[in-house]
Amino acid sequence: MQPLSHYPIVIIGAGPVGMLAALMLQQQGKSVLLLEARAAGSRLTDQRTLALSYHSIQIFRHAGVELPDDVFTFIQKVHVSRQHHFGRVLLSAQDINLPYLGATIDYVKLVQACEQALTKLRVPVQWQTKVEKIHTSPHWASIQCQSQLQTHIFTAQWLILAEGGNLAADLPDIQIRSYDYQQQALVSTLKFEFSNQSVAYERFTLNGPLALLPYANDFRLVWTCTPQEAKQRQQMDLDTMDQQLQTVLGNRLGRLCQIGNVATFPLQLRQLSRVYSQRVICIGNAAQTMHPVAAQGLNLGVRDAETLSVVFGSFDIARLDNDILARNYAQARAYDANAVVGFTHALVQLFDHAHSGLAYGQSLGMSILGAIPAFRQSFTKQLVYGLNSSFTNFAE
After folding, report:
1. Domain 5-72+104-177+268-354 in CATH: superfamily?
2. Which residues form the FAD-binding domain (predicted)?
3. Are 60 and 53 in contact (CB under 8 A)?
4. For burial by CB atoms within 10 Å, which of 7, 72, 78, 370 has the most?
């Protein structure tokens, strides 16, 4: 057993949100330790693609993460519609006076840029450290972990959970709300006859939404389907997949020319009943995971890290030992987090419903949203910036 080590702030999880929180707190002069189970630079084969809003990109850049334009594929417009029904919404960056609404980026590129920023800002990171147990009390938290076959124990005034495991399950006063959609997300890179023109598509069907996100000259596909459909589509040849996509999307993109590697993952909603327990605060995937419709998950986590930084920045180092920090953070995030999680869940539930009267109401609502600029602009701003107005945004 190694001797105790104490830090004012310990963050568990060096994903994009955990690294972002560490960078922003380090910029304030706070003493931070970041713990991560993987080795540094170990996710170079991860093929995921992330969708970041304009606001999220500015937050990463403000935190010292060097993200040149050429690592992104920018999204200028989002086309939202429903199969076999009237009504559509076209969201545009021009409507809210932005150069773009968001962008896609390879997971690996974002993680590498964040790791480089950690090194540049000299953020202490203990890689290959698996956290086994956490404990919290009214005045401190403790972390028991394994590193290089040795047990380490850290204590902290504040412990920030930023990983999506089960560490939060044993915390006092926290329950986990979950919902299994009994669906899979099928993801791949698709090349069509026509290029993406910086337009993303969200197409709702009775079997679940289909999203196409610009990725270089191609698209990243996120297709919600039943487990059986996902298994079948993984084995489809090019012509069969083209026929199915034409049925859902029409021929606006021309014929399908190429399919990249296909992967699937299960879809589940998971949200904590509260985001703190004494000296532990949960952010990002530790606080909530949601359906990928509308691509809000990571962006919500970025706003978690942003608000955490604002709350901690309002207290100097000598005053960090104050439990009002957690309450302030929870109050600041409640509206945005609950609204976004509820919105994405409602989208999936409503558009999966086959009732003709409900379908007509949905189509009418989409038509009104698409036709009235003030409504459309307000909705677009909320997707880009979130619904948190309690604090001044760093990036603006």
Report:
1. FAD/NAD(P)-binding domain (3.50.50.60)
2. 8-314
3. no
4. 78
